What does this fold into?
Amino acid sequence: MARFAHEFVDKPSHDLKEDQVNRSYIYLGVVIAAVVVALVLSNRPRVDEESVLQEQAPVAQSGSNTLSGEASPATLPVPGMVTMVDLGAKSCIPCKMMEPILAELEKEYEGRAAIVFIDVSIHRNQADRFGIRAIPTQIFFDAKGREIMRHEGFMDKESITAVLKELGVS
It folds into this structure.
């Protein structure tokens, strides 16, 4: 043991510097390899899970499925029908408060107006499509598909009914 320590102390300083330089090159090589791997993985084509979900899942709706559960976000607003789209999330408290209201309205206006709920936690691209800044957001479309009114936050049944009446739905 004493001999080993003695050899280390007597080792020329240029050998110690070479060891430090060699270690530096090894560390540098590992860092470069990690960066290359990260770049390769980040540029790899990915399956867009959101678009796959959109193709497979129907729009989440409240109540009795006015659109028979077959509507997709691409078919909104419903052609030829006054449409109210409520964009929210199942985890949102005001959205949960609106759920029974939407179910009632959907039954009351069946065949006369489409009342549709889109869960933006599932259909994230719809939040971008409709320019959503807060949830819940209600968007009202006339029968020609033009956006007529937008409201952010909880909306009571009477207010929704008033807008539908303004759009000619009795």
Observations:
- The helical segments are 2-10, 13-42, 49-56, 93-108, 124-129, 157-166.
